Amino acid sequence: MPDPKYGTAENQAQRLEQWLLQHTGPADHWYGDEHPVTGGLPRHTTTSMLVLTDGVGHRLLHDQLVPDPQAQADVCERRVALYERLSREGDAPPEAAEWIAKDRARAAALRATPGNGVPWQTMGDIAATQEQPEP
Length: 135
Description:
By secondary structure, the protein is mostly helical. The protein is built from 5 helices and 2 strands; from the N terminus they run ααβααβα. The model has no long low-confidence stretch (mean pLDDT about 85).
């Protein structure tokens, strides 16, 4: 997911495209291409973005022994935005309002949770420290 402080992913791609076009010469294979960056990007539907967002959520849960609550809250909030967009598009299932409420509540609870997660590899470091005999 793009970092909001740099604008949307589309804005970032357009800025990159403008820079690239300004620094392009006849020897570049994309010379003369109107959209050398964004022309090849896939356009996702709201539903495909929900699937990708769920993949991010699953990776957070599997990549860390104790997942980062703030990152999990980000995923919940992104899902809420996508469910709302799906509703505006008229493609939301009847359960969407319930899913939005649950994800909003989960995001609020996660935002109130202290800590930033514990990666799996850290557990190996902790175990190694505990196994060393004291002098």
